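On clarity, I found the account of how folds are encoded harder to follow than it need be. Since the whole study asks how a given chain folds, the encoding of that fold should be made plain. The format is easy to grasp once an entry is in front of the reader. For illustration, here is how one protein appears when written out as sequence plus structure tokens.
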Amino acid sequence: RNKMRRLGINVNEEKFYTSAMSTARFVASQLPNGTCYCIGDAGLHYALYNVGYTMNSVNPDYVIIGETESYDYTKLYKAANLVRNGAKLIGTNCDIYDKVEDGGLAPGCGCLISPIEIATGIKAFYLGKPSPLMFTSALKKLNCTNTNLALMIGDRLETD
């Protein structure tokens, strides 16, 4: 939202729809009030709590991976073993890297989830851009029946 303001575009917060929101709505539609082990930042945790999900590090329904700087070997080990034991693996987006303010690149969700895919032999299901599920879910959430009035803004051509 702040970035949009800097560009001179004022949009109300309720008009935004993130990959975290898309992920939360999807898992809630598949299994209402389920559980998950989540590696992600506050926005993802908030979106999951908002749809009735609880965190579970023992036997969750889903392992959900999002963008985060708090990724470590202990979390990776835990996530891989939970997936091996039957939890479904979900990624909020498939970006391999993210551009950061200093001009560098940070590992993206696709990069963070790939060790779990390799260790378990199980491919993640991705819900952010460019997933058609995200667009359909966003249009429903925004009560938008005219797709000509919807605009998606991304930061890279490969995935957005």
Notes: The first helix runs from residue 2 to 6.
